[in-house]
Amino acid sequence: MNTSANSQTTLDTVLHGLMTRYQERVPDVSAIINAMIKEGIIQQADDIENDHIAFRTLGVPQLGIASFEKIFLHYGYQKRDYYYFEGKKLDAYWYSPPQPHYPRIFVSELRVRELSAEAQHLIQSYTDEVTSDPVDRLDLNDGAAVDAFLHQPLWRTPTLADYLTLLRESEYAAWVIYNRYYLNHFTISVHNLPEGYNTVATFNAFLEKHGFRLNDSGGKIKESPDGGLLQSSTVAELIEAEFAAGETYRISGSYVEFAERRVLPAFAHLPADQIRREHRREGFEANNADKIFESTYSAQTSRQVP
Ligand code: OOG
Ligand code: NI
């Protein structure tokens, strides 16, 4: 772990690279930011607090969370709670940042060994091209190199047939085989926005008024049992993807999430201008996350607009 001033600069470079590529690929990001500016909710994009970012990985020995997390642990992130997703065959952890102005990170991993033999072979035919942990070969102090790594193909371009086979069994597997470590979403913290927009309920109303489509799996608002964490998300936009041999197909790209972290009961007496991150509900919630994953699933992306 390295928390020196240098590593903060490297982390800034890596996060900046991720957000730039993400914003280019997901038109909803700029569209939402522009709508927020036009409505006077914020003055500029920098006024948005990024609650967390998320990545997806494949659970094979040389990849997965064990490999991926080394990047952010190096920048001073700390590994926190574990989450288990039975039906989706996923494991996940969240990581708290070295300083409160950096986003939390949520990383999930597909339990590949629980898939059918066919799907496992198919995934391994790609991931076997990565013969040793690629993060071990990276200079983590070189922000540009890490940025390049997060956006480079780790294995050959999949065939459309393989993508579709995986899609039938695990939408998550299909997403990662094509999208790899591309940022899956960034998350707008709504609780610090002005009155009228500072809850997920009111922010959802603003989004829908502007025509953004929300994931409605389990309801448009996902709420933790303690009532402290409320989340919603857009439905991933389809991107024209190029597969092996030049075949093209429209697949799910990334999406945008919204989070409201309520003030913990112990700090309810604090005046609003003294509330900081440590006074609010921390972490994630498995049942919320289970539904948010579906922002890239066909049941959401192919839903008819009412
Ligand atoms: C992550 C879904 C879960 C959250 O905040 O609980 C999540 C994903 O779609 O990869 O983002
Ligand atoms: Ni999220």
Automatic annotation (TrEMBL):
Keywords, ordered alphabetically: Dioxygenase, Iron, Oxidoreductase
Any one Gene Ontology molecular-function term assigned to this protein's record: dioxygenase activity
One family name in Pfam for this protein: HGLS
Superkingdom as given in the UniProt entry: Bacteria
InterPro entries (alphabetical): HGLS
EC number: 1.13.11.93
Cofactor: Fe(2+)
First-tier enzyme category under EC: oxidoreductase
Protein family membership: Belongs to the 2-oxoadipate dioxygenase/decarboxylase family.
PANTHER family (UniProt xref): 2-OXOADIPATE DIOXYGENASE_DECARBOXYLASE, CHLOROPLASTIC, DUF1338 DOMAIN-CONTAINING PROTEIN
Name of the protein in question: 2-oxoadipate dioxygenase/decarboxylase
Organism name: Rhabdobacter roseus
